[in-house]
Amino acid sequence: MNFANNEIITRMIEQTKSIAVVGLSPKPERISYKVSEYLQAADYKIIPVNPTAESILGEKCYAKLQEVPEDID
Fold first, then answer.
1. Per-residue pLDDT tens for 47-66?
2. pLDDT digit string (tens) for 10-19?
3. Which of 22, 11, 57, 63 is nearest to 38 (CA)?
4. What is the full DSSP assignment across the chain?
5. Do 47 and 19 contact (CB within 8 A), yes or no?
């Protein structure tokens, strides 16, 4: 990886606060759940997008990405 790409990734990580996870599973054994749980523990705001669940990881679910009323980084 060249330096320019590394700098872009570093800036993205530093500036990102909220992440919409499309297709986040409510099942703890699924990778999407584990990754989202890890991100929450690292102080990121997780916004689950799953039309079949009301909440996941303590966060309200949205059926579509377009329904999320807050800013997504």
1. 999 999 999 999 999 999 99
2. 777 788 889 9
3. 57
4. --HHHHHHHHHHHHH--EEEEET--S-TTSHHHHHHHHHHHTTPEEEEE-TT-SEETTEE-BSSGGG--S---
5. yes
Q: Which residues contact 15 (CB under 8 A, 6 or more apart)?
A: 73
Q: Could you tell me which of 42, 47, 67 has the C-alpha nearest to residue 57? A: 47
pLDDT of residue 6: 73
Distance of alpha carbon 14 from alpha carbon 34, whole angstroms: 21
Name 56's bridge partners: 59
Which tokens belong to 36? 């989202």
pTM above 0.90, yes or no: no
Residue carrying structure tokens 């523990």:
41
